[in-house]
Predict the structure.
Amino acid sequence: MSQGKLITMDEFTIQETRKFPQATGELSALLRDIGLAGKIVNKQVRKAGLVDILGAHGATNVQGEEQMKLDVFANETLINILKNSNDCAGIASEENDNHVCYEDTFSANSKYVVLFDPLDGSSNIDVNAPIGTIFAIYRRVSEMGKPCTEADFLQPGNRLMAAGYIIYGSSTMMVYATRISVNGFTLEPSIGEFCLSHPNMKVPENGKIYSLNQGNTIKYSEGMVAYLNYCMESNKEENRPYSHRYIGSMVADMHRTLIKGGIFIYPADKSNKNGKLRLQYECNPMAFIVEAAGGKASTGYGNVLDVQPTELHQRVPIFIGSKNMVNKVLEYIKEKETVA
Ligand code: P6P
């Protein structure tokens, strides 16, 4: 990155587009629209403590979770921004039972669809912990000019065109992966632009942090318990001390894993045979990002990106992060797996 010169996300995506003469710029425009939605959500998140927006909205979403007002605001912001985009035929959201087709001519002739979790980790809002927006972009498989169909939203992660997240943390960042690279952009509030701050992000092959909700250990499989003991006993050896870090907000735990290395795990357990996290708008986008950055993402029985979705809100177990750490936990899972 040139010393001193700030490169905005728009300038960066234009530079990247120029490397591919056949590129139309539609994907760059869609990323810009998502970035705009992120800036609008960020403004509300930053003042959540002051404005009576924290109070539970009262409604419950398709997951049966009480919708915080910020959830609703973020969802509606993304739906409206993408509806006005010239590059999105429709969306699917954690907060909506079914996908939404945009009926206008421009949208019907767009070649992309977007899935998102508008405000992941929202239970952390009232304790001021980092939260985030997660998004996944597919090229539609339905006929152009016609409304998008459910098939557009049930594609495996290995068909993703781009995926990313916006983290509302100590700073606001947008990180996205294409099939070429993973890049991070930090919001510069004085100019209202995301500026390149983390070019060509790579996940370290090894890490020292394991991240999961240890409160669930009693429900874990034999293999998972054995792996946890391996991590906790690591401090007996000088060169392999693992630390446990868990924020309880996937975007925050994954951002740390992407930057510092480590492993994030939400496995199956006795009460959640498929784990808790959603394939299409949590696990697949994060798996696409991590694998584009040289890491690994597994369900415990195969690659996350290879799962053929059958339902929009289906869940999968996930073991994701530094390649060598994911391979290590899979050794334990395979050796001792008696799924809980
Ligand atoms: P648990 C937040 O509710 C979320 O969907 C993810 O962001 C996070 O990783 C996970 O659930 C936390 O779940 O069961 O540990 O509270």
Remarks:
- DSSP finds nine helices and 15 strands in the chain.
